[in-house]
Amino acid sequence: MDGFSWRWAARRAAWALIWLLVLLVLAWAGLRVAGWLPGQQMPEQQTSAAPPSGAASSAPLAAPLPTSPAEPSPAPARLPDPVPPGSVPPDSATPQRAPEPAAAVAPASGALAALNSLRAGAGVGAVQAEPDWQAGCAAHARHLVRADRAEHREDPASPSRSAAGEACAPGHYFVSSQPGSDLRRALSYWVGGAFHLPQLLDPRLTRVAFGEAHDAGGAFQSAAVLDVRRGLSAPDGQTYPVRYPGPEAGLDLAVAPAGASASEWPDPLVHCGLNEAGAPVALLMGPGVTVRGASLKVNGQPVPACLLSAASFRGDSTGDTQVGRGVLGAQGAGVLLPHAPLRAGDRVQVSFGTTAGRVGWSFGVR
């Protein structure tokens, strides 16, 4: 045919083939990053709840904390959502599920024993499980995995919403993309949280309830819940101060984490200017007392540590700062984060300066 060049046509076909291969490679890379390739396992995502409420010195003790103006909540008693925007997949992306995920109530006995062991090591009385709340906390855990949500509330329009679950929603929660995460793992995570630990050690806490649920069909495959709000009452016997780790029990690395929990909310590492830190050391002096300073020695040598207190904490936003200071101020708490994790065999000396005087003690690490 006049004007037709086979060489030109072959060159055009070769370039078209090259561009097709480039597009296929880019599409494969995008699917891999998104985790949509067959057999590719989704990385674990852990999100814990914002601490419950700060408590006033007289009843009722479960007064709500201030909420962030940037993250208004639907009801005054609710805390702001601790999950950054985009952390929870939209409803349209939720995969098809089994008809009903399993909720676990029985494992609460082991978690209760672990919680009471933690409290005993800090010289705080044991708490009891409240049977009337257990089913509601299990329901809230089920809602978190059912709706793929990580929050202190339940959407009234959600089919998994329940009144009993809503009653437990303001407490601690832990969600994970791993199907094997359970209450014991959640408790270890809360112990490493600078703003969760004081709630676990509150001497006014007398009753708690746990919930656990699993659902293999969603992004969040495991959830654990702990109600630490409704069981606050006037202390009977031992009160403040509370020291953790206690001078006799020390820090057991087989039970407690060596490092501060990642993804804690509010984020204490923003205040400290660190990417990671050691597990928290805490002093609770009680309402009306403020911690002003602290120091840490390991094996007789001063080591750098970051102090979180109601007088000094600064979060990532005004709302985070208000919530963090409210939690710490509710119990006159100071939380010290070593810049490096403590190690087995260490002998630690800690000293806190407070408006009620200086408090110091030492403990071992094993």
TrEMBL record:
Superkingdom of origin: Bacteria
Stated name of the protein: CAP domain-containing protein
Pro residues composition-biased segments: 66-88
SUPFAM superfamilies per the UniProt record, alphabetical: PR-1-like
Domain SCP: 112-218
Biased composition (Low complexity): 48-65
Positions of region (Disordered): 42-105, 148-167
Cited Pfam families: CAP (PF00188)
